[in-house]
Amino acid sequence: MGTILFELSLIFYFAATLVSIIELFKEKRIISYLMLSLVGIGFIFHTANIIQRYVVAGHIPITNFHESTSFFSWSIVLIFFILQFRYKVSILCSFVMPIVFLLMLSSSMLPQDIRPLKPVLQSYWLIIHTIVAFLGNAAFALAFGVGAMYLVQEHYVKSKQISGIFGRLPSLQTLDAMNYKLITLGFPLLTLAIISGSLWAESAWGSYWSWDPREVWSLTTWFIYAIIVHARLIAGWRGRRAALLSIVGFLIILVTFFGITLLQKGSHVFIE
Amino acid sequence: MKIFVAGLNHNTADVEVREKVAFDGSRLDDGLRRFRELPEIEEAMILSTCNRVELYAHVRDTQKASESIKSFLSEFHNVSRASLDRSLYIYADINAIRHIFRVASSLDSMVVGEPQILGQMKGAFEMALERKTTGILLNRLMKKAISVAKRVRSETKIAENAVSISFAAVELAKKIFTDLSGKVFMLLGAGEMAELAARHLMSNGVKEVIVANRSYERACDLSKEFNGRPVRLDDFLREMVHADIVICSTGAPHYILLRDQMQKVLKERKQRPVFLIDISVPRNIDPTINDLDNVYLYNIDDLQGIVDANMFERKKEAEKAEKIIEEEIEPFLKWLSSLDSVPTIVALREKAEEIKKEEFEKLMNRFPGMEEKQRKAIEYMASAITNKLIHPPTKALKEDPEDRDLMIAIIKKLYGINGEEKKDK
After folding, report:
1. Mind giving me the DSSP string for B208-237?
2. What is the pLDDT averaged over residues A30-37?
3. Is A228 within 8 Å of chain B by CB?
4. Does any CB of chain B come closer than 8 Å to the CB of residue A236?
5. B376 is a domain residue
């Protein structure tokens, strides 16, 4: 049952990704509607899948690699819809859905069985830490998409080539504002994730910080985003630089997420 | 029954001729009335704008109509026949329909895709409706023309991109800043094009205007016009810190804004973006400034390049629009030719009605004591028989567009309907 729901959402996200790529080349309102409905239906199945796993496992389903990748995508789509509601920039979908789909695809290739949680991890901290961490990372994923849109649009304006999707991308100012909003949403969440993680570590293992590779990379990410926020406020680093930094920041997140999880043997291995 | 167009436009007539032939406000009423009263004209409408004067009519005979319209125009506007002959174009039937559709869709305009013409056409039609100078044919044609124009607008991008330099500048500004209200705009030097662009920006709601000029007096004058603030040209760098959009056309023979100066300005602005438009020749702003972050520098050629690209885009879209128009002509022609059979159908119906009445009365005279109920039944039967008999030929007349003329001739002969058609008015 859970697998079917997951696969349905994967299929809908895949279709949405295809349509979102067509949308880049062909401007038709109906294509936008189709794309958004596909994402929406996929999201409903996806939510159902997460709830189903929660019911079966009895704890929040972010405890193995399959689940966390899936939850990561779910958070991205959630924040995408919030952003879509606020800014009505459906073309953002074309920049974000490919990421969502690739995350879901990798998630689908990972073992999906539900196994019991290590007793030491059974705590409310699991819910707080993971949800905050993934929502924060999802905000950064969208900042990546918006940053890419900014670079494309800036290229059009700078090179004086007014063609392609120039007309449909929002203004540079809007994109920059979206980027800043996303980062100021993601940054406190990431901060909370690190704090809650170390508190949890203290209660589980008795030490706040153990230089686990995931911790090191999270800290690196935290510094990158701290720089983005700081540089904007103090030195007026906005526009292109902010966009570039948010792209770099998200790439580091991906490295942390995939690289470390695949290689590590540390405290972020949740199941026995 | 023929649709007829006589007109002249910016391509066929100079402004001297156009202004003479134009029906301006006060004379339009009179002109329209007299045009409608011409003996050849069944329905009439006049479209008169600064780029075109067109007379639309439903006429009986194209040749005669063309003659009488020409002499009407020449007399009414007091222009020579020769200059009319040179600049007037005449279209009839399908060409007239096509022309009217093209005009409404702004394909015949000086700036293809400009939106005003449709409104002007609607205005002309409304006026004709008010004065009751149009009838079934022109009414239907105008409604169709308006809907075709709307279809063209929604299905093609013919009116989408800016095709003038000042509009292109405003469009770019909107792609840099979401919304121009609350932005500060600076005019460096003055010139016709700079003022035009300034006006467009003002109508898009910029918050504040700063005017700097070599002559401070001129700066003061311009400031009054734009409700702005005059500054001395020597102070422009200090003031530029506030400006989000700068239009520069000082006429200085060298760069007046250098890269490191701009860098300082940007630093003071905390890197808030600036849109610089340098329309002076020779250029007044160091072109390498465009390489700086958060500065977007366009010169006159860049803007012209965008305008050209948009023009090209519009031409491509215009081809799509022509196809739409061809599609729309077909059904209208069908409807038009179906009108040809209307008099025959009416005559046929009248003939049948006449026979029925005659025979019914004969019968009634022979049996005077008949009861009301029986009378009704006989009358009902007579109606049913005549209706059923004339139904197939009527249907054939309405439906078969190809052999319609032949059909009309045959039916007239078979039923002995008179050649003289009733004039439906």
Report:
1. EEEEEESSHHHHHHHHHHHT-EEEEGGGHH
2. 90
3. no
4. yes
5. yes
B26 vs A21: CA distance, rounded Å: 57
> Catalytic: B50?
yes
Q: Are residues B52 and B27 in the same domain?
A: yes
B124 and B15 within one domain: yes
pLDDT tens-digit profile of A44-95? Answer: 999 998 998 888 887 788 877 888 889 999 999 999 999 988 888 888 989 9
**Min Cα–Cα distance to chain A from B397, Å:** 43
Looking at the structure, do residues B296 and B187 belong to the same domain, yes or no? yes
Residue B232's CATH number: 3.40.50.720
A 142-161 → B contacts, CB under 8 A: 153, 157-158, 160
Contacts A171 to B, Cβ<8 Å? 174-178
Chain A with chain B: Cβ pairs closer than 8 A = 54
Secondary structure element (H or E) that encloses residue A100, with its range: helix A92-108
What is the reported pLDDT for B1? 67
- Sign of the alpha-carbon dihedral angle for B372, B375, B379, B380: positive
Q: Are residues B200 and B278 in the same domain?
A: yes
Q: Could you tell me if B26 and B131 lie in one domain?
A: yes
Residues B363-390, mean pLDDT to the nearest whole number = 89
Interchain contact, A171 vs B175, CB within 8 Å: yes
Phi-psi region of B257 (alpha: psi -120 to 50; beta: other; left: phi over 0): beta
Interchain contact, A239 vs B294, CB within 8 Å: yes
Q: Is residue A191 predicted with pLDDT exceeding 90?
A: yes
Q: Stretch A206-224: mean pLDDT, rounded?
A: 83
Whole-complex ipTM: 0.81
CA dihedral (A132, A133, A134, A136) positive or negative: positive
Chain B CB within 8 Å of residue A235 CB: yes
- Written as one letter, the residue type at A192 is L
Contact A236 B269 (CB under 8 A): yes
For residue A259, pLDDT beyond 80: no
The model's pTM: 0.74
Distance from CA of B319 to the nearest CA of A (A): 19
Residue B104, domain CATH: 3.30.460.30
